């Protein structure tokens, strides 16, 4: 008689079949029950361990801002306790840790517009800390899984933890030129666009509108103006690109905001803000000083209004970028303006800063995106502008009032009527003569003996300053110009084009033209965007982010501030 044992030891009973008695075994013996209990205890213990890990990570990474009990610090840092914002979208919650967040957000009916950087946590750590938060302080969400975190991270700016980790690297500093030294001053808590001030104090403008005071010696950044104190980010996408300081210590800030509600076409609203008198050594609240608007550009080409600075004549100068790539007519019915450039774009504005009702004077025209400008030792104004996507050289222009510098009818030293893809370019205005750009005779930035007008295509020149006689050679009596670097990648240009600091020495000719000797001072730099003189032979350099080439196509995290100074003898 056959006896087929299924599990364990023989049992007393069995099931009678045609072939004999099939002796079954109980599915849950006492021993099996003990094993199940043991495994359950292990599972609970593992869950408790995971929550304990999450609690530890929270204490190390999150509690400083969001507080140990998750209550936050309104109106700066939102609460995590009983958070409706966290509960509303789990994928969004994961992505905040994986790529960071710039407000505004509304939590428990209160708006917050601070900046949270990406957290350097792997998938298991993100899982643990979010599970801890979701099981704490009255939150009723379920725990997260590593698979859920990995899937959400793949939709973020940094597709994997390895990519995030690589993006966090600050690369070694380049070698300083002979007679100078280079050091890191401070690492930025958020993306920043401008430096302003000088020997009496340095300010740093955040892209989102906040302003920091920088203690250069200590490397300390202190918030002195918060964006929410004067800007309403809920009205539309907002960016601040200009900052300067006047003789009274007041700050002047330029903001651009895309308005889509209550306007016939999408609009770029430009405001120049001026702070009230300083109180206890700190700038007062920014107040609107001048406001205007024009149709928002299409396809990311709205360069906006950016640099602002006082000229040797005491007047206030402001750069206004183009709203198109090459003057093209592009738009969508009922949303975008059906036209190219308008009267106040692509040029330089001038104001009388003493005016109670400031009037905009169009000082010069035909400059595509003059993100940087500066005056030489003779008081002549030069702009440094980005060229179009179709690989024309980036321009340095010697600015004289009332002149036209070509855009969008002429690009650099190209023929007046370029071929594809700018066949849409209309004929130039009758009676207008275009002033050609400065010719770069080399040896750097694309220059050669024949001259280039002026820098490599897609190198993106940024902020600039004049180094006077108090600077040692080789910088003395020349400009320093940052180049942000290639944004289009190959084959448009080599993927490491730009990413540097240039020295530019100009030679003016009797016929009104100008040439330049251009040399590399520092390379590679991590997308340098602005430069500021802080004393004799001493400048600060603002790195916007951390990669020094377009090649790796890494996500961006906030950069740092460097100091280049003449070495002590």
Key words describing this protein structure:
single chain, 569 residues, alpha+beta, Cytochrome Bc1 Complex, Chain D, domain 2, Neuraminidase, 2 domains, five-stranded mixed beta sheet, 7 helices, 31% strand, disordered N terminus
Give me the secondary-structure topology.
Elements (H helix, E strand, L loop, with lengths): L14 E3 L2 E3 L7 H32 L1 H4 L17 H5 L1 H10 L1 E2 L2 E3 L2 E3 L2 E2 L6 H12 L11 H8 L7 H7 L12 E8 L4 E7 L2 E6 L4 E5 L4 E6 L12 E8 L5 E9 L7 E9 L10 E10 L9 E6 L5 E5 L26 E5 L9 E5 L6 E4 L5 E5 L9 E5 L39 E5 L17 E7 L10 E6 L16 E9 L5 E9 L5 E8 L2 E6 L16 E7 L3
Parallel strand pairs: 23-27
Antiparallel strand pairs: 1-2, 3-6, 4-5, 7-30, 8-9, 9-10, 10-11, 12-13, 13-14, 14-15, 16-17, 17-18, 18-19, 20-21, 21-22, 24-25, 25-26, 26-27, 28-29, 29-30
If you had to describe this structure to a student in words, what would you say it looks like?
The chain has helices at 30-61, 63-66, 84-88, 90-99, 123-134, 146-153, 161-167, and strands spanning 15-17, 20-22, 101-102, 105-107, 110-112, 115-116, 180-187, 192-198, 201-206, 211-215, 220-225, 238-245, 251-259, 267-275, 286-295, 305-310, 316-320, 347-351, 361-365, 372-375, 381-385, 395-399, 439-443, 461-467, 478-483, 500-508, 514-522, 528-535, 538-543, 560-566. The chain is globular. With 569 residues, it is of the alpha+beta class. Residues 1-33 and 35-44 have low confidence and may be disordered. The chain contains 7 helices and 30 strands. The chain has a 5-stranded mixed β-sheet with strand order 23-27-26-25-24, with no helix packed on it. Strands 7-30-29-28 form a 4-stranded antiparallel β-sheet, with no helix packed on it. It folds into 2 domains: 33-166, Orthogonal Bundle (Cytochrome Bc1 Complex, Chain D, domain 2), CATH 1.10.760.10; 169-566, TolB, C-terminal domain (Neuraminidase, 6 Propeller). Helix 1 (30-61) crosses helix 5, helix 4 (90-99) crosses helix 6 (146-153) and helix 5 crosses helix 6.
């Amino acid at each position: 008689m056959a006896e087929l044992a299924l599990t364990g030891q023989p049992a007393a009973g069995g099931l009678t079949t045609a072939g004999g008695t099939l002796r079954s075994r109980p599915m849950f013996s006492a021993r099996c029950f003990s094993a199940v209990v043991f495994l359950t205890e292990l599972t609970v213990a593992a869950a408790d361990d995971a929550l304990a890990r999450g609690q530890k990570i929270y204490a190390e990474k999150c509690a400083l801002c969001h507080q140990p009990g998750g209550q936050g610090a309104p109106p700066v840092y939102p609460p995590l306790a009983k958070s409706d914002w966290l509960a509303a979208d789990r994928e969004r919650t994961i992505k905040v840790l994986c790529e960071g967040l710039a407000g505004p957000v509304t939590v428990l009916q209160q708006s917050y517009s601070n900046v949270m950087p990406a957290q350097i946590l792997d998938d298991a750590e993100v899982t643990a800390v979010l599970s801890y938060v979701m099981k704490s302080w009255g939150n009723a969400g379920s725990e997260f899984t590593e698979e859920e975190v990995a899937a959400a991270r793949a939709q973020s700016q940094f597709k994997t933890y390895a990519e995030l980790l690589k993006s966090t690297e600050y690369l070694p500093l380049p070698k300083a030129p002979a007679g100078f030294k280079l050091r890191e001053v401070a690492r930025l808590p958020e993306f920043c666009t401008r430096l302003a001030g000088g020997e009496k104090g340095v300010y740093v403008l955040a892209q989102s509108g906040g302003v920091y005071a920088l203690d250069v010696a200590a490397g300390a950044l202190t918030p002195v103006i918060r964006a929410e104190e004067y800007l309403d980010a809920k009205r539309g996408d907002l960016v601040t690109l200009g900052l300067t300081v006047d003789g009274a210590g007041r700050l002047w800030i330029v903001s651009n905001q895309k308005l889509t509600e209550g306007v016939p076409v999408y609009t770029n609203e430009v405001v120049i803000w001026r702070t009230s008198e300083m109180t206890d050594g700190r700038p007062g609240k920014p107040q609107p000083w001048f406001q205007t608007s024009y149709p928002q550009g299409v396809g990311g080409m709205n360069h906006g209004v950016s640099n602002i600075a006082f000229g040797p004549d005491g007047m206030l100068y402001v750069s206004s970028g183009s709203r198109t790539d090459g003057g093209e007519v592009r738009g969508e019915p009922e949303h975008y303006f059906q036209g190219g450039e308008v009267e106040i774009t692509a040029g330089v504005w001038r104001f009388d800063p003493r005016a109670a009702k400031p009037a905009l004077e169009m000082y010069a025209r035909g400059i595509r995106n003059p993100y940087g400008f500066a005056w030489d030792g003779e008081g002549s104004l030069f702009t440094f502008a980005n060229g179009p996507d179709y690989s024309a050289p980036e321009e340095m222009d010697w600015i004289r009032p009332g002149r036209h510098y070509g855009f969008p009818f002429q690009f650099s030293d190209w023929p007046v009527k370029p071929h594809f893809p700018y066949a849409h370019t209309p004929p130039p205005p009758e009676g207008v003569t275009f002033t050609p750009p400065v010719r770069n005779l080399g040896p750097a930035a694309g220059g050669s003996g024949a001259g280039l007008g002026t820098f490599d295509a897609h190198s993106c020149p940024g902020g600039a300053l004049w180094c006077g006689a108090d600077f040692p050679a080789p910088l003395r009596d020349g400009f320093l110009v940052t180049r942000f670097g290639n944004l289009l990648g190959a084959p448009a240009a080599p993927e490491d084009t730009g990413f540097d600091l240039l020295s530019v020495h100009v030679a003016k000719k009797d016929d009104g033209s100008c040439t330049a000797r251009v040399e590399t001072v520092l390379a590679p730099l991590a997308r340098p965007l602005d430069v500021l003189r802080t004393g004799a032979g001493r400048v600060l350099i603002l790195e916007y982010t951390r990669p020094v080439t377009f090649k790796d196509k890494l996500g961006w995290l906030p950069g740092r501030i460097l100091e280049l100074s003449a070495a002590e003898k």
